[in-house]
Amino acid sequence: MAKTEENVTDNYLSSDDVINVYISGIDSRGGINEVSRSDVNIIMSVNKKTHNILMINTPRDYYVPLSVSNIVRDKLTHAGVYGIECSRNTLEMLYGIQIDYYVKVNFSGFEKIIDSLGGVDVTLDYSATLSQAGNLTVHNGVNHFNGEQALAFARERYAYSDGDRQRGRNQMMIMEAAIKKACSPAIISNYTSVLSEVSKNVITDMSYDFIADLAQTQLNDMAAWNITQISVTGVGSYSSTTYSMPGWSLYIMVPDEESVENAREQIRDNYN
Hints:
The chain is of the alpha+beta class. The chain has one domain (5-115, 172-271): 3-Layer(aba) Sandwich (Aminopeptidase). It is 36% helix and 26% strand. It has a six-stranded mixed sheet with strand order 11-6-1-2-3-12, sandwiched between helices. It has a two-stranded antiparallel sheet with strand order 4-5. Helix 3 (107-116) crosses helix 4, helix 4 (147-155) packs antiparallel against helix 5 and helix 7 (191-199) packs antiparallel against helix 8 (208-221).
C-alpha cells in the first residue's frame, strides 16, 4: 500500500528530538544522479537529546511490499529503480517511522568521503581475505581503511558464511567509524572543508545550513555518541512473484517478523 499523508501524521512515530536519516548506497560508479538499485539500505535514528544513534540495516534482498506496488512484494534493492523516494517510503512502511532526510551515495562518492576523513579505523573480531575485492586482507584487531579499501570491505560477501548478512554488518561498522572520525576534534574543527568535499559526492535533501548547524553544535559541546547497530534478518528463498520482474525466479530473503518487530521496538525505545 502506498504511503499517504494520513499514515505519516497519524501512525508514525514523531519527536522533535529524533531525526531519522536514510542512507542509500547505489551499485554504480556513474553519476550520482543515476537511478539504480539500492544495495545499501541503512536507517540512522538520531536522538539529539540523549546522544543515541540507532543504526538499522535492512538486507538488499528483503522481500517486502514497495510503496508503489499496491502490496505486491519485491526485493528491497529494486525500490531504488523507482527512485529514492520509493526506497524511503518502503522503509517507512516497514518500520512505522517517518524518515526525515535521505543521503544517497555511489561507489566513487563513498571512496572520496572516506578519503576526505583521512580514512577510518574498524576493529574486527575475525580475519579474512576478501577475494571479491582484490584480495584485501583484514585481520583481527584494528584495521585502517582508505576509501578504496573501505569500499572493498563494505561490498564483500562471498568471504563470509553469513554472506549478505555479514556485509550489512560490515557496512554499519564503516558508517560508525566514519561518524566517530567526523566527530573527532581534528575533523570537526575543520568541518567546512569536509562538508565541501562531502556535498560534491552525495545527493541529500538536507540543506547545507542544517548540516553546518549540526556540525557546529557538535563542535560546541563535543558530546560522545552511543551507537547501536542492529540488522533485521530472514530466510533465503526464491520467488517468481516480484513487482519489478514478474515471472523471473529471483533470490529473496523472506523477512523474519520477530527481528523486524525487535527493530521497531528499539526504534520506539530511541524515541522514548
